[in-house]
Amino acid sequence: MDIFQYEFMQRALAAGIVIGIICPLAGIFLVLRRLSLLGDALSHISLTGVAAGLVCSINATLSALVFALAGSLGIEYLRRHYTQYAELAIALAMSGGMGLAVVLISLGKGNTATVLSFLFGSIVAVTPVDLYIIFAVGLLVCVSVMLLYRPLFYISFDEEGAKLAGIPINKVNVYFMLLTAVTIAVSMRIVGALLVSSLMTIPAAISLQLANSFKAAVSISVAAGLISVIAGLILSFYLSLAPGGTIILFSLLLLFLTIGCKKATRSFTLQGPSAGATG
Amino acid sequence: MNKNPVVELRNVTFAYDRKIILDEANLKVYPSDFFSIVGPNGSGKSTLIKIMLGLLKPQKGEALLFGQDTNCFNQWHRLGYLSQKATAFNPTFPGTVREIVGIHAGIKNGLTRRMTGQDWEKVDAAIERVGLSHQRNSLVGKLSGGQQQRVFLARILVNQPEILLLDEPLVGIDAEAQESLQHLLEDLHNSQKLTIIMVTHDIAYASQTATRLVCIHHQRIFEHNPLDYSKSALQERGLTQLYHFH
Ligand SMILES: Nc1ncnc2c1ncn2[C@@H]1O[C@H](COP(=O)(O)OP(=O)(O)OP(=O)(O)O)[C@@H](O)[C@H]1O
Ligand SMILES: [Mg+2]
Question: Fewer Cβ atoms within 10 Å of its own Cβ: the N or the C terminal residue of chain B?
Answer without folding.
Answer: C
